[in-house]
Specification:
- The model has no long low-confidence stretch (mean pLDDT 94).
- The protein contains 17 helices and 19 strands.
- It folds into four domains: 4-98, Uridine Diphospho-n-acetylenolpyruvylglucosamine Reductase, domain 2; 105-223, Uridine Diphospho-n-acetylenolpyruvylglucosamine Reductase, domain 3 (2-Layer Sandwich), CATH 3.30.465; 225-348, Alpha-Beta Plaits (2-Layer Sandwich), CATH 3.30.70; 349-437, Alpha-Beta Plaits.
- Strand 18 and strand 19 (393-399) form a beta hairpin.
- The chain is of the alpha+beta class.
- The strands form four sheets. Strands 12, 13, 14, 15, 16, 17, 18 and 19 form an eight-stranded antiparallel beta sheet that branches.
- Residues 43-224 form the FAD-binding PCMH-type domain.
- Keywords: FAD, Flavoprotein.
- This is FAD/FMN-containing dehydrogenase.
- Belongs to the FAD-binding oxidoreductase/transferase type 4 family.
């Protein structure tokens, strides 16, 4: 049987019902609907069923059945992805493999500073369980109340604390994975040193479920910081923000846990669409930096460090204005400005989004060069530039000119704008996807900008680990 043999589907569904229970095999269109539409509502697929296993053993059984009956599986966690990586195609011959019921925290080891959790655990719940043990799980992003650990690992999620703690890959010590043969690789070793062969863990992280199904992981924990100090700084340009970043690293070292860049227009959008949010400075600044120090010593020590940093920044003419949060409420208000940017942009209308990364040292040059190219190609286009300056990741988005219908703008300019941005990213030795994944959104872009050697190595991995193309076909790269 092949994935194109629709006659096999009833037998497949019956076998799945027997394996995990009829109530966990959803085949009613109304029940399936939430699982086949991506978070941005850009992709709407069809599925023969939604499968909801409750254990690794049940996942393994379903994989064996999918191989037997020639049905492709689309793994899905919280369905919060931004690149269509967890959405089935339009054929109706793929099944969504929902991992939400794999939601147990299996162990917390505060001595080894690790937490072992299943793929369906909501990120915020993992954070809370770590906090209950007096530890910090530092992965943090806007969707943490609904995204899952498995999805975070599948896309190698970043977030706001990458600068200090690293992204999902760097936070992961071990995995449990169901292979295309329906076998279980138990790599749940909480070791920081293990040189006994190839690092299989890193093959599956960031692969978006195309090579295997992550069912559990061992993640690093850290001591809870004694104090967090947040500040906003107004600067004249991205280059000045980079100077502030260098100075902050020299002054605070590893205590620097957040460094976010926001253009003036970003905050204008936020204050326009959310009047409760206030522009933080009396006068506008071309760029605003949101930075945070996390200190294990004391609040006084953190305050002294940030005061020293700002004094040096003013003395060197790097910073034009600065505000330091004096309370948790003020700190939360500063972060709220950053977190409301995507919401404000959505309220403004459809836009052309880019999740890119270039070396941090080249961000200023990239912004200047690319802004100029877009202004020449689309006069009046409004740039919504924000992101994680400390690790080189920008959300470099393009809004329609004022008064122009957003849908018409996308229809006319999206392809051209994408080419301008991605060509510039490539010229600055960057990547077209920093933390959102490739999914189905950027397959052609990956094929355009990666070398033939790199693409061939990726295809060889896929062919070896998933020869039947059962796992999430049509995502990350074209096969065959």
């Amino acid at each position: 049987m092949t994935p194109h043999d629709t006659a096999a589907l009833p037998a497949f569904l019956q076998a799945c019902q027997h394996a995990i229970g009829a109530d966990q095999v959803l085949d009613d269109p109304d029940d399936i609907s939430p699982y086949v539409t991506d978070w941005r509502r850009r992709y709407v697929g069809r599925a023969c069923a939604v499968l909801r296993p409750a254990s690794t053993a049940e996942v393994a059984t379903l994989v064996r059945l999918a191989t037997q009956f020639g049905v492709a599986l689309v793994p899905q966690g919280g369905n919060t992805g931004l690149a269509g990586g967890a959405t089935p195609d339009a054929s109706g011959r793929q099944a969504v493999l929902s991992l939400r019921r794999l939601d147990r925290v299996r162990a917390v080891d505060p001595i080894n500073d690790t937490i072992t959790a299943e793929a369906g655990c909501i990120l915020a719940h993992v954070q809370a369980r770590a906090a209950d043990a007096g530890r910090l799980f530092p992965l943090s992003l806007a969707a943490e109340g609904s995204c899952t650990l498995g999805g975070n690992l599948a896309t190698n999620a970043g977030g706001t604390a990458v600068l200090r703690y690293g992204n999902a890959r760097e936070l992961c010590l071990g995995l449990e994975v169901v292979t295309a043969k329906g076998e279980v690789w138990n790599g749940l070793r909480g070791l920081r040193k293990d040189n006994t062969g190839y690092d299989l863990r890193d093959i599956f992280i960031g692969a978006e479920g195309t090579l295997g199904i992550i069912t559990a992981a061992v993640m690093k924990l850290y001591p809870q910081p004694t104090a967090r100090i947040t500040a906003l700084a107004g600067v004249a340009s991205p280059q000045a923000a980079l100077q502030l970043l260098a100075l902050a690293r020299d002054t605070a070292g590893a205590l620097l846990s957040g460094f976010e860049l926001m253009s003036d227009f970003c905050l204008r959008l936020v204050t326009h669409h959310f009047p409760s949010q206030r522009y933080p400075f009396a006068v506008p600044h071309a760029q605003i930096v949101l930075l945070e120090l996390s200190d294990g010593e004391s609040e006084a020590h953190a305050s002294q460090l940030i005061e020293r940093l700002m004094e040096r920044a003013f003395e060197r003419g790097i910073v034009d204005d600065a505000l330091v949060a004096q309370s948790l409420a003020q700190s939360n208000a500063m972060w709220a400005l950053r977190e409301h940017i995507p919401l404000a942009q959505a309220n403004e209308g459809l836009n052309i989004k880019h999740d890119i990364a270039v070396p941090s040292s080249r961000i200023g040059e990239f912004i200047d060069t690319t802004d100029a190219a877009i202004a020449a190609a689309v006069p009046g286009a409004r740039m919504v530039t924000f992101g994680h300056l400390g690790d080189g990741n920008l959300h470099y988005n393009v809004q329609a000119p004022a008064g122009v219908d957003p849908r018409a703008f996308l229809a006319e300019h999206q392809a051209r704008v994408n080419r301008i941005v991605y060509d510039s990213v490539h010229a600055h030795h960057g990547t077209v996807s920093a933390e959102h994944g490739v999914g189905q959104l950027k397959i052609e872009d990956v094929a355009r900008y990666k070398s033939p050697v790199e693409l061939e190595l990726m295809r060889a991995l896929k062919a070896t680990l998933d020869p039947g193309n059962v796992f999430n076909p049509g995502k990350v790269l074209r096969c065959g």
